[in-house]
Amino acid sequence: MTIRVHCLAAAVAGALAAMPVLMAPAAAAQLMSPANTQAGAVTASLAAMLTAQNAAHGLDANHGVAFVRQHPGAQGTQVSRFDHTYKGVRIFGADAIVVTDSSGKALSVTQSERGQNLGKGAANRLGPSTADFDVTPALSTKAAIDAALRTLPAGAASATHQSPPTAELIIYPVIKTERLSTALTKSDAELNALDVRDVVESYELAYLVHTRMTLGKKPLFYDTVISARDGHVLHQWSMLQTVVGVGNSQYNGTVAINTTLVKGSYQMIDASRGIGGTYGAMAITNADHGSSAGSVYSNASNTWGDGKQYIAGGSTTNANGQTAAVNALWGLMNTYDMLKGTLGWLSLDGHNTATYIAAHVNTGYDNAYYSDTCKCMFIGDGSSFYSLGSIDVIGHEMGHGVTAATSNLTYSGESGGLNESSSDINGEMVEAYARAGGTGSTIPPGGNDWGMGKEISKNGTPLRYMFKPSKDGSSPDAWSTSLKRLDVHYSSGPNNRMFYFLSQGSNAASNSDFYSKYLVRKPAAMSGIGSDKAYRIWFKAATTKFTASTNYADARAKVMLAAQELYGAGSKEVKAVQRAYAAINVGPDIDE
User: Fold this and answer.
1) Is 7 helix (H, G, I), strand (E, B) or coil?
2) DSSP string covering 32-101
């Protein structure tokens, strides 16, 4: 899939400044602060600019844009995200990103082209079949929800809704992968990620149905795409954004945690981090073996936990039961501090909105997960594993919150693998930061183990190896055409390896775990640029350039662009990005 990336020249920026400002009605304007009024005016101008660009790119007047959200970018910039619409209906996976400076001037625009084959404009390559696409559904939202519920795993009929199911009318692009003309004679095994592209084959009017349920005490979170014509399932994926069996709080030793004294009782509310949200600040709650968050942890003294693994069947509020909460809070604090200290990013959404973690979810639960319903995290006690509250897992789960607030990478196929990989990267960087004391403005060069979940494993074996994913027996080391058919926890593997090579470099010995057969230029062992630079490049690309449908090939282009903007075209950092992606069969290798 081709993605348009525009670096706006002064002429375009000037045109933006000259556009009429759309003001709110007087009554509404009185309720808005000057800052919010200005932000609304900038958003309206950006929407007008995108609409004008759509026309310039051959899209007819039925195409539009709808503002979704805004979040901070690097170096004082703001990132605004818009959905691409047709006849007022959102086109799934077709979004636009505009980066603006502090005055609201547009610096760059990134647009997905998944909606260009709709309408009577010159951009449509599918012809009459989509020239006047009908957006009138034959199915009601209730019928779509009922159809989605019938497709859920066995037992779902007796599950309980955590939140009411919703159905959004969308236009769903049906995607096929095709080879470029230069790769027609290659075998499948010889294909590089840049030898193929995703193209829109057709469109379906559909409902995107969100169901967030619990079966017993276990979550069933699914997104289902249902045809709005006849109710058949077009696609379905689990939205339980997890790392199975990861986390162990008992290895952190004695740590300092921030609590709040309320009416003579200490509560696990950190008033120094985050604002608003459910509890007014960052907090840890006690699910007490249930599936809901429960109440905020409280204690008569400000000494918490015994530093030991939770004893199954024991109290969740005594010293032993508090240990999981201690380490959840320590992990939350360090994740918050790493993002703020190194990047100036506040909490999950960049706006400093407080989140919370629920400890002791379910009974003997070998999982930890992020919930998009509450924008919070749930940590199990483990059964086959130790308590699921290790520093890298908490960093991982909070990473899902950052992704949800920015690119919102679709949790399926290659984009889903990149979603998981972004959380793994976040977890490793939080671990490095925390192990070095949890302060400072840079990611330390070491301190993390590059193995997700190593601490909680009862035999010391990580769940995922960043440097050689295939060591887990299921994850591939490199891109292939089969990647999009894998579970997202496995399709994350190649990008994890890319990031390791970008940070730490590779090894030229073919029997090394750090060797890549795809690095064929000189030197045979590529040089890393360190975790700090690697993370800055990745975070900038993931939060300001990725769209919801970004795949591996597009990620390479966006990460290279982020490296150019941060360190300059032709820099060693840009070369390292190109070599790191080449090492996983995404793009060609180059000499350093």
Assistant:
1) strand
2) S-HHHHHHHHHHHHHHHHHHHHHHHTT--TTEEEEEEEEEE-GGG-EEEEEEEEETTEEEEEEEEEEEE-
Q: Is 167 helix (H, G, I), strand (E, B) or coil?
A: strand
Among candidates 152, 147, 144, 199, which has minimal Cα distance to 170? 144
- Measured in degrees and rounded to the nearest 5, phi and psi for residue 364 equal 55, 35
Cα–Cα distance for residue pair 137/207, rounded to 1 Å: 9
Q: Which two tokens mark 224?
A: 């289902």
Q: What is the pLDDT of residues 144-179, one digit of tens each?
A: 999 999 988 766 777 788 889 999 999 999 999 999
- Name the β-bridge partners of 207: 169, 226
Kindly give the pairing relationship between strand 464-465 and strand 265-267. Answer: unpaired
List residues bridging with 168 in a β-sheet. 208
Q: Are 363 and 217 in contact, with CB atoms under 8 Å apart?
A: yes
Torsion from C-alpha of 520, 522, 525, 529, nearest 10 degrees: -120
Tokens for 578, please give them.
């190109």
What is the radius of gyration, based on Cα positions, of the chain? Answer: 24
Contact present, 243 and 452 (Cβ < 8 Å): yes
Query: Could you tell me which of 299, 274, 298, 273 has the C-alpha nearest to residue 285?
Result: 298
Rounded to two decimals, the pTM is: 0.84
| Cα 570 to Cα 572: distance, rounded to the nearest angstrom | 7
Local structure of 353: helix, strand or coil: strand
Q: Side-chain half-sphere of 579: how many Cα atoms within 13 Å?
A: 32
The predicted pLDDT at position 210 comes to 93
* pLDDT score for 456: 83
Instruction: Check: CB of residue 405 under 8 Å from CB of residue 69.
Output: yes
**What are 116-155's pLDDT values in tens digits?**
999 999 999 999 999 999 999 999 999 999 999 998 876 6
- Residue 217 is predicted with a pLDDT of 61
Q: Which two tokens stand for residue 70?
A: 């805004």
Q: Among candidates 419, 588, 438, which has minimal Cα distance to 520?
A: 588
Rounded to an integer, the average pLDDT of 28-35 is: 31
Q: Are 496 and 469 in contact (CB under 8 A)?
A: yes
Q: What is the pLDDT of residues 264-282, one digit of tens each?
A: 888 898 988 998 899 988 9
- Delineate the domains of the chain, giving CATH numbers in brackets: 3-127 (no CATH), 141-239 (3.10.450), 249-405 (3.10.170.10), 459-582 (1.10.390.10)
Specify the range with the lowest mean pLDDT, choosing from 23-32, 48-57, 106-115, 420-429.
23-32
What does pLDDT average to over the chain? 88
pLDDT of residue 15: 31
Q: Are 519 and 541 in contact (CB under 8 A)?
A: no
Encoded amino acid at 368, one letter: A
Which pLDDT tens digit goes with each residue over 329-357? 999 999 999 999 999 999 999 999 999 99
For residue 141, the model assigns a pLDDT of 96
- In the predicted model, is pLDDT for residue 261 greater than 90? no
- Specify the amino acid at residue 409: L
Within its chain, how far is the Cα of 182 from the centroid?
33
Q: Which two tokens stand for residue 568?
A: 């300059």
Residue by residue, DSSP assigns 462-497 as -SEESS-GGGGSS--SS--TTGGGS-HHHHTHHHHH
CA distance 506 to 583: 9
Specify the DSSP element, H or E, that contains 106: strand 106-112
